[in-house]
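Data deposition worksheet. Section B asks for the primary sequence of the deposited chain exactly as it was used as input, without tags or linkers unless they were present during the calculation. Section C holds the resulting structure in token form. Section D is free text for depositor observations; keep each observation to a single sentence. Incomplete worksheets are returned to the depositor.
Section A, Depositor: J.P.
Section B:
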Amino acid sequence: MKRLFIYTLGLVLTVSACKEEQQKTSVTQEQKPMNVLFIAVDDLRPELNFYGASHIKSPNLDKLASQSLVFDRSYCNVPVCGASRASLLTGTRPTRHRFFDYKARADTDAPEAVSLPMTFKQNGYTTISNGKIYHNIDDDSLAWDKIWFPKGNIRNYQLEKNILKNADANLAMGGASAFENTDVNDEAYFDGEIARKGVADLQQLKKSKQPFFLAMGFMKPHLPFNAPKKYWDLYDREQIKLPETYVQPESTPKKAFPNYGELRNYGNIPKKGDLPEDLAKELIHGYYACVSYVDAQIGLVLDELEKTGLADNTIVVLWGDHGWNLGDHKLWCKHVNFETALSAPLVVKVPGKTNGEHSNAITEFIDIYPTLCELTSLEVPDTAEGLSFLPLINGEKQIKNWAVSKFKDGVTLVKDDLFYTEWTDDDGVAYARMLFDHKTDPLELDNLAEKPEYQELVKQLAVELRQKWGKDFLTQNTK
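Section C:
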């Protein structure tokens, strides 16, 4: 009997100790901060399989989307890389004089703002910037524990020694082509190197007790459209067609149609006029090849996230810094106020919360900052101007029905199905405008802004645009 009592007592104590240990483990797991894998893709438009473009080969992005909340109406705040990234990463809106073009810097345009990576760093996260996160590699440098960028020519030609002897590589001068189709391996171009750096970082971060904010900035499908031959081979040039919107309606202000100088800088592109149809299709082909190439590189990083076991405790955010025109309105590049340049992909995977749903709610890129803070239980700095879309991730309904984007003189208010743009002077007085109703005109071919029957609506939208374009929008930066 005594032996039985001792055995029973021992069993009770063992079970009790096991339960206590399980409770401790559970608490530890619950309290462990979520990591963030923050993936930026340069010039990525929402022409992707999971957005309904079945001709695009992007299996890795499709898989990520199937595990995420996909935002079908996400808008950049500025359709140019440097300004868009500085705005997103500081959580602050562009103004007439802030975040103006590709040269914009967060640390000079918004020095008072606490950036997104800085917020994570101040809260004990390891912060790493790989590839192109800010346009300027040394921008906001104090926010990062490590900054890494591949060495070599920024435009990344395999034949650079032959075509760029005395050229400014950033402008692709000296006869450089707008595309390159070479039979090389994936590591021959920057994105292959960037992916492998991310894989190595995840392996190291797995060993660390610190949470991490790992930013991966991929270069393609930015010009030039340079990708290994096998990705070009995924597409049949004969099946590629010019967009339905390959037209510039007379009713649309001429201001809306720039000369797309970014593309004109390349040696094989005419300096003016419409592109020859064969060249236009070759550019579209090259863009598609680059999308498939960068998809494969992102897949390597996402696969490693799974292999290391970090996926269950890591939020993944993937975004394109703005849209891109592929002949839409006979335009190329970004730098315009059409839907094709302002709408950009946004995919957010939150373990245990997202599972391939789509949201039609309007969101802005500055909303990403407060959302990530709320998801990781960090305080949102006062300088962040966006609105968290965490309610959407939690399955709640639309939190707002508008967004504002700006490029130089042009400012666009997206409200429900309406797309209203004004080009204004320094005093905020409009000198040109356009209005599209996406319910009846999703391709933006019929400008309603000057039609008599829409004048009352135009007046209302003009007032609302000024209410929503942000504080101090017209104030001259005196720094």
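Section D:
The mean pLDDT is 91.
Residues 317 and 348 are 5 Å apart (CA to CA).
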